[in-house]
Each structure stands twice: as structure tokens, then as C-alpha cells.
Amino acid sequence: xxxxxxxxxxxxxxxxxxxxxxxxxxxxxxxxxxxxxxxxxxxxxxxxxxxxxxxxxxxxxxxxxxxxxxxxxxxxxxxxxxxxxxxxxxxxxxxxxxxxxxxxxxxxxxxxxxxxxxxxxxxxxxxxxxxxxxxxxxxxxxxxxxxxxxxxxxxxxxxxxxxxxxxxxxxxxxxxxxxxxxxxxxxxxxxxxxxxxxxxxxxxxxxxxxxxxxxxxxxxxxxxxxxxxxxxxxxxxxxxxxxxxxxxxxxxxxxxxxxxxxxxxxxxxxxxxxxxxxxxxxxxxxxxxxxxxxxxxxxxxxxxxxxxxxxx
Length: 312
Hints:
Residues 169-275 form the Fe2OG dioxygenase domain. InterPro entries: DIOX_N (IPR026992), IPNS-like_FE2OG_OXY (IPR044861), IPNS-like_sf (IPR027443), Iron_ascorbate_oxido_reductase (IPR050231), Oxoglu/Fe-dep_dioxygenase_dom (IPR005123). The strands form three sheets. Strands 1-2-10-7-12-5-4-3 form an eight-stranded mixed beta sheet. Helix 3 packs across helix 7 (127-154) and helix 4 (57-71) packs across helix 7 (127-154). It is globular and about 55 Å long. It has ten helices and 14 strands. 36% of the residues are buried. By secondary structure, the chain is of the alpha+beta class. It has a single domain (3-311), classed as Jelly Rolls (Sandwich).
């Protein structure tokens, strides 16, 4: 069977759509129903669509517009705020500089990594841009806090367990642009190589160009296309370590379209939710009662730096 015939098109068969409003304002049974579905999604596939996330469509559209304007700047202008090192993990990342799959050529994308420090200290950004990003950041934190509450309840932990370990907001907001292809890619080259995310959870906002694919447990790649008025959430490596693989961090990639979409730009926005830098990520007691811990303890900061060093 060819790779393309293996690629499923009915992504909702594997990736559930969960209404977050039922968890926010529902009664006890409705909240528990959401918690049960979240547990199942994170345990079986590591991805889910969130309906009613609580972020206004207008704010999302505004940030996509700012993203397009940024990537339309000259190479010289973008290079003035280039990504420099793993410790700060902020700034512009040029096309092919990053290799999410180290065995393949550089990814056919460019990105802008932002954190709270870079927003307040970088004079290259306009006040309008910074205000939009900060509003978006706050909205994403509200979503991640709600999702982390559901995670804690699903794992029979105090409801604020994960929130207390993320309150310093050591997150990264990433604007992404996948340019149209002007020439054939190098052998094995894709828009974003096969990888898993590094932190706790990721919020992903994407346009309708498509290309995101995730790998099921049996090795089949399935499409994770945009569904209107939803965002994608996936669990990352540190959540997988914390839960001793009760929650899985699933491999995913962005493939090159095989039709006319290859001549169009693709844009997405990722909010990488990361624990406080000094958080010791160690197997949760309830996740190693019937099996030994798979991983040793590691600080969230050390893990992130080690992964970034391998990526760049």
C-alpha cells in the first residue's frame, strides 16, 4: 500500500472533537464526561479538537494578519531579530534552518518564536503587533489552564496541580509560514519533519491549506485538517514523561501538498505550553503503581534546551 493510500481522510474517526464549554459551565456529570473523553483522547491518540475554546475568532484572524505582514518583510528586516540560542528561544527562524527530523534536510518553513520577554524587550515590533500578541497570549493561557484542569482530574490529581506548575508562563508562541514551493524539494524534504512537541500541551491554529498529519499507534499517517471554529490540542513529551506514557506524545509532520496548494502559502500559529523552568518532571505517583517509571526526573528547562539543541 502506498503512503498516500495509507493516509486516512476521515480524521474525526481518530481525533475526537470535545466541547470545552461543557467543562467550563456544565454540571458535575457534564464536566466528568469531558474529563473522560479528554483522558481517552490523550491516552489513545494524543490529539483532540477543542470546540468553544474561548478565544474570539476576530482575535485569531488579527494575529494571522499580523503573521502574514511579518513574513512579508524583507529578509534583512527579519534577520535583525534572528533566533540566536536555545536559552532565549525567541526570534526569527529562516527557511531550512530548523530540522524537526534531524535525519532529513531542513524544513521548508520560516517561523517567529515569541515569549513574554521578547515582546517587552524587542523594539522591532510595533505596539499594535505587541498588543495583539499579548491579548492572544492571555487567551491561550486561559485555554491551557482549563485543559490542564481537565488533565489533572483525568489523572485523579488535585485540580490545580498542573496549573501550579505552569504559572510562570514559560510558554512559546510561534508564528509559522510555509512558503509556496518554487522548485522541487530535496530528497525526503517536507514542510515540517516528523517530530513530537517538547512541552506539556500545544494549541494549534491553522488555515485551510492542510498538510498536518499525525501518526496513529499502528504507524498509519492520518490527516488532521482544520475544522471550522475549533483548535487542535496535543500532548507533548514532558506530559508523556510526567504520566509515564499514560498520555502519549504523538509524532506528527507537515507534508508537501501534491496538488495546486503547493503553490500557496500555509500559515499556522502554535502556542507551546511549557512547565515552569525549575519544575522537576518525574513520574506521577498514580502513573507508576503497576509499572516502573520509564524516565528519570528532569527539569523542564533542561529538557527543552536539550531538544532545541538537537533541532537547530
